Amino acid sequence: MTKSNRQAAVDLHIHSSLSPCCDDDMTPNNIVNMALLNGLDAIAVTDHNSCDNVEAVIKAARGRLVVVPGMELQTSEEVHILCYFPDLDSLMSFQDRISAFYDGVENKPDLFGNQFIMNERDEVVGFRKQLLLASLNISIDEALQYARSLGGIVVPAHVDRPSYSIISQLGFIPEYMGFTLLEYSQKSSVENYISRKYKLITSSDAHSLGSILERKMIIPVEEITLEGIFNYLSS
Ligand SMILES: [Zn+2]
Ligand SMILES: [Zn+2]
Q1: Is this structure's pTM higher than 0.90?
Q2: Among 22, 89, 121, 227, which residue's CB has the most CB atoms within a 10 Å radius?
Q3: CA–centroid distance, residue 207 to ligand 2 (Å)
């Protein structure tokens, strides 16, 4: 059996200019360059209910760091879950499936912020009409089923926060949902909330460049590749 012999510095919850609540300068290249400057080995750009900028981030990275395909979904229970996939195609298939559950409300950029879709040169190539800062009409159970059927891993986001977390919304973490990994907010302690049976990961949930983590969250991996990071998340 291969033992973990590498350490990867990760920040697996970063928003881009697609998320309306996020700074417009969270472009693919700015995110990648800040992550490299901070010495990170792997990142995930997890926009709200959409993954339209992930391909551009992967291309902008040009293999200089690992980009885990992901999305932060808001379920009908107002729970935020991070959905990670082993490849971009699986993430795109997931987006196709969940797009049936948008509630039809359109974004008002002046009110909520821009939802820019960008290419790997940081050019705006489109925008999302659908307001992404809203719950989808999909339950957490259905979302889990969809994500896992496509090989995805689901991680409850910022479980220690007083809103949009599985604990704030459901009151507890149902065992039958089969989570093994939880994300907690970097500013809070989770010791009072979480039993020892879960692996824990912290991320920045960055909405601005200055918030992206430095080498703070270190995970053991067999190799610093997408497969290596994904194996850690799924084990
Ligand atoms: Zn969130
Ligand atoms: Zn977030």
Answers
A1: yes
A2: 22
A3: 8
